[in-house]
Amino acid sequence: MLILIGRGKYVNKPKILIIDDDDFLIETIKSVLEQDYELLSAGTGEGIIDRLDSETPELIILDVNLPLIDGYEVCRTIKDSFDHDTIPVLFLSGINDLEHRIKGYEVGGEDYITKPFDGEELKAKIQTLIRHRQTTEQYKEKANGAMQQAMSVITSTGETAYVIDFLRESYHCDNLHSLADKVVNVCNEYGLNTLVRFSAEDYTIFKGTTGLGSPIEKSLFDHIPPHIHIHTFNKRCIFNYGITGILVKNMPLDDPDKCGRIRDNVAIIAEGANAAVKSILHTNILNNQQNHLKTLMEHDYKHLKLPTKRIVQIT
Predict the structure, then answer these.
(1) With contact defined as beta carbons under 8 Å apart, do 143 and 151 qualify?
(2) Does residue 304 form part of some domain?
(3) 119 and 207 share one domain
(4) Which domain holds residue 117?
(5) What are the angstrom distances between the C-alpha of 278 and each of 167, 175, 187, 247?
(6) Taking burial as the number of CB atoms within 10 A of a residue's CB, which of 136, 252, 260, 293 is the most buried?
(7) Is 268:239 a contact under the CB 8 Å cutoff?
(8) DSSP label at 68?
(9) Whole-prediction pTM value?
(10) Cβ neighbour number for residue 162 with a 10 Å cutoff
(11) For residue 194, what pLDDT is reported?
(12) Are residues 188 and 279 in the same domain?
């Protein structure tokens, strides 16, 4: 229900559920609270969870003496519910002794008021409980936020370890095929479906999570401008670092934080792989030059003509 608060502005009235089998008492409570609250009522606590699922109140006023299921058991059911356990319960009873108050506290009740009640006392107790719930919810949200941040840091640390391990291992690769396998494997740790391309001057190799890639996937690398290192389209993302290209086919767009971390980590992997490719190619060139020089030296040695020794006999 909306109430006008001035200049055409409306706010929702807090909902209160009254559970009592005494219709006259319910009407009495409504007359005290109806100006400030939206009031719901029920004559029994049966099916309470279904009721709360459809209409979640800010507070429940609960009579202790109910037919079929007493108020204490109804309260216990509410507090055992994961979705509704934070709803404050204000017990209403004609019995005012320590034993019943303790019993109400043990089943999770937040406060206790006796019949006949004072209207101002009822209002004060309700306001206090609602404020307390709002404060509790705020702390709960902050705690959840802090926990999520902590888990994000832990997750991020684990993900960074994959990158560090890859960079360390990439330095020991002596050929492009084994390096490509390592790129695919580290991307698999993130749950990514990838296609890796290494493009040298005289040949190109492809390695992928599910094969060597389709012709159209392979062609994508040739249509990315050299100055663009990361290009995203839908769930696909290409990391372009010259000789090295990585196509990720399933970026987790539904989780922006994870998506951002993966984008950063795969970019580092691509840069590291690109440096490793250059090192491998340079090493191959040096080895080829050394082998060629060795072949030339062996060839020249075999065909080298040495001068014939002359033997002079002295008489």
Answers:
(1) no
(2) no
(3) no
(4) 2-134
(5) 14, 11, 21, 20
(6) 252
(7) no
(8) S
(9) 0.49
(10) 17
(11) 93
(12) yes
